[in-house]
Each structure stands twice: as structure tokens, then as C-alpha cells.
Amino acid sequence: MAVNVQIDKTYKGPAEFQPAIAATKYGTFNILILLVCIPSAWSIQFESTLTSYIIPAAACDLGLTPTQKGLLNSMTFFGMVSTGFISGFMLDTLGRKKILWVGFLLETAFTLGSCFSISVSMLSVFKFLGGTMTGGLYVALTAYILEFHATEYRGKVQMIYGMTFSIANCIMPLVSSVILPLNFDYSLGFMNFRPWNLLMLISTVNPLISFIVFYFLPETPKFLMSIGKNEEALDVLRYVYKLNTRDLKENYPITSLIEEVNLEEAAANKKSWKEYFYMGWQQVTPLFSKQYRFKVLLVCLIHGLFLMGINSLRLYLPQIFQASHDYEVTHNGETPDLCNILEVTENFSRSNDEDTCSVNLENSFNVYLNSTLVSLVTILGYAMAGTLINLFGSKRLLVILCGSGCLTGIGLIWSTNTATTLTLSSLYLTALGVGFDIFMIMLVVIFPTTLRAMAISFALFFGRFLTIFGNMLMPALVNEGCAPPFLFLAGVAAVTVISSLLIKTTGKEDMK
């Protein structure tokens, strides 16, 4: 039974979780959590994206074919898909803290394994293992951060948390621009240590810092209360209150926490694995009822198309920019059109078979600057999203953005120079990136609360699966000529437009 209490300076008594976490105020501990979010979010983003910067530099060392490049870009997502359905169960069983510190410890080990890989097969295995970690770490980190904040702060905190991933996309190319052009080759006996190995070694700093910090941070009081450990939860809340207010623990106004779980009743009703599986299936089956079947399929399709379109181009762009640089170097500074760039990429991959492979990483700062500019344009798009939603409405803006993605995808076919390629690819990724988040907001009114989480889980699984498909398909399309890869990207956006028009929302939110 819910008990609502008004917490003020004079109140001393019991409370439920929401009033109790609000009574800790906002201060030093919350800022610390947001600071921890930086290396943690960067670790997750580096795992899924850094490979796209490694591939141009390591292509000769590992003898990468176009198919192997697509496979390497996809291995992290293979790992995410493989653990997608069990990460939530483990999170609610083992707790947020344990998943985080153990997960980041393993992520550190897997990143080190990637760093010292001596073959494409070895590197692929470690990228897969890294992916098995990052999918669950993202969910655990989100839960950990939000459960230490009162409701009034969660919206703002979620925005800051989301921005750290965008900042990571800006940091990666800048760090790569410093490390990858270095000229060294150290023999370690079992392998040659080169700049791309150093870049991966540096990237282990993020999960290592995250592991150390989360090892010493407390478990969330919300999880402790959910397993009946109210006294431990109260100790954590007092500790947070002390850090935030610089006051004594004894002055924390909540004297006890109202039980969310009856331990005796929970023990008496303890279920077998078979019964838990049956209960889980009972939660899934309503999604496939006549009422929601079409909505689920439509949501999975749109979610998958967004992720496939975004990641297929985003993870391939560093190779395009590197090929553009190589063309300018070999043609006395002549600015190439996109067809020339793709031809260089194709010829480069063929040269691997002839033992004449080479990559010119000298004076290639523009390669990484272009990737940074793409990320900055995307951040600018997010900053404008709120105003545009108010102007057009969510559904109409979603259709406009997907239509813009279709047009910019087609426009890339006739890109005549690197600047035009940069502009059009930035607009494509911004349109689909902002459109994806608008679509996620719309999910709130597409499904009822009881089905929303499961619907998103299905959509996320389907989205990662299509991301793998797109990453594998993109190099193959590049080998077929100039038009196919960008017709594919435009087609993804076009189908997303058509699918978005079919969405029927319920609720009072402006979805016109």
C-alpha cells in the first residue's frame, strides 16, 4: 500500500523509495555519478565504434578483405544480440553494482585482448566478447544513474547521459588523429606493436577507470529494497545525504523504509526456473495478440531500419575519408568525387592480395576532423530537436527527417568533392539520428506501460540484427559501383518514411 509523505526539515519517520531518494537532495554524490558516467559511456561507445577507425590503419597488417572489414564492424553487435535477452534478468538478479564492476573488469580484459590480437580471427573473437559486455553494461549504467536521482532530476540527467555518447563520437577521431599517424613498429616477439595497437591500448583506460570506481561505489538503494535489504538501503541513503548536504547522517529525515517486498511471503512463493520462464512467456504473448501484433512488427521494422541506416554509414565513413585522403596524396592534391573514392577503396582491398598494400596515414588530420564534424552536426541537430518538435509535431517531424535522409542518401551518389560528401553524410546521420530518438519518444504512446519494456527489447534485438546485416552488406555494395551503397541508404530512409506514416498513436501528445 502506497504511503505518501511530505518530506521537510521537520519530518522524521518512514518513507517509500521516491520520497527517500528525494530527501538526499542533489549535490556532490550526484555530480560524482555523472563524472563516472563519462568514462563508462565512452567505454561502451568506443567498443562499438572504435573499430571503424582501426580498420583503415590495420587493413594491411591484418590483410583485411572487404568482407572481413564488414565482419569486424559487426562483431560487437553480434555480441550484443547474443546476450540481449538475459542482460535484464541478470541485472535484476545480481544487482546493478556487481554487473557494472564485473562487466567493466571483463571489458578491460577483452579490450586488452583486442589490442594484442595477431590475426583478424583473434580480433573478431575479442570484439564479439566485448559486445557481450557492452549491451548489458548500457542497461545497467542507465539504471544505476537514474536510481540515484529523484524524479525531478531524471529528465535532465538522462539528457546529460545521452550527450556523453555524442561527445565520445567527437573524442574518438581526435584521439585517432594523434595516435594512428605515428610511425613506429616494435617487435614484441609474438607480434609487432603498431599505432593501431596503441590506440586500442589507450582505450582500455575507460573501462579500467569504470571498474575501479564502481567497485567502491554503493549498490543502488532501489535494488536493495527490491530484495528486502531495507537497512542496507537506508545506510546508502544516509551516506548519499551526508555527501550531498555536508550534514550528519543522523540528520537524514527518513528513519526507516517502507518494505516493498515481504520476505516471508517471497520465500513461501519462491518459484522454479520453469515457472519463471512461464511467467516471462505470459508477459510476451500479449504483444502477439491481434491488438498489438501489427504494431510490434511495425515498431521492430522502423527501429531496425533506423539503426541499420545510421550504423551502416557511420561505421563506414572513416574508410571513405581515408580513401579520399589517399586519393589526394596520389593525385597531387586533386579533390576526388565520391565515385573516385569508392574506386580507391575497391582497388585498395584488391591490392592486399598482391602484397602491395599500403596506407598513407601521414598528414591525414582531415580524415579525423571530418568524422568529428559529422558528430558535431549531429549534436547541433539534437539541440534543435525540441524546437522542431513543437513546430511540426512528433510524427510529422519524423516523416520529414526520414524523407530528408532519403534525399541526402540519393544526393551522395553525385557528390563531387569531399566537402559535399561530408555535408550530405552529416545531414543523413543527423536526420536519422534525431528521427530515431523522436521515434523512441513516440513509443511511450504506442504501447501501454505493461508492454512497453518488452516491446522495446524486441525492437532493440531486431535493430542490432539489421545493423549486423547492414555492416556486412555495405562493403559488398561498394564493390558493385558508386550508386548501390547510397541507393541502399536512401532506400532504408524511404522505407522508414512509409512505415512511419502507418504508425497510429494513442494519447494526447501532439502526434499530428
Give a quick set of tags describing it:
512 residues; two-stranded parallel ribbon; 4 strands; disordered C terminus
Layout of helices and strands:
Blueprint: E1 13-15, H1 17-22, H2 28-49, H3 51-62, H4 66-94, H5 96-115, H6 120-147, H7 151-179, E2 186-187, E3 192-193, H8 195-203, H9 205-216, H10 221-226, H11 230-245, E4 254-257, H12 263-268, H13 273-284, H14 293-314, H15 317-330, H16 338-351, H17 365-392, H18 394-411, H19 418-446, H20 449-478, H21 483-501
Parallel strand pairs: 1-4
Antiparallel strand pairs: 2-3
Helix pairs in contact: 2-6, 2-7, 2-9, 3-15, 4-5, 4-6, 4-20, 5-6, 5-8, 5-9, 7-17, 14-19, 14-20, 14-21, 15-16, 15-17, 17-18, 17-19, 18-19, 18-21, 20-21
Coarse shape: globular
**Annotation, overall tally of beta strands:** 4
- Beta fraction: under 5%
Strands of the widest sheet, in order across it, are 1-4
How many helical stretches?
A: 21
Which residues form runs of ≥5 with pLDDT under 50?
1-5, 265-269, 506-512
What is the average of the pLDDT values? 80
Assign the structural class, choosing from mainly alpha, mainly beta, alpha/beta, alpha+beta, or little secondary structure. Answer: mainly alpha
Biggest sheet details: 2 strands, parallel
Radius of gyration: 25 Å
Helix content: over 70%
Termini separation comes to: 39 Å
Order of helices and strands: EHHHHHHHEEHHHHEHHHHHHHHHH
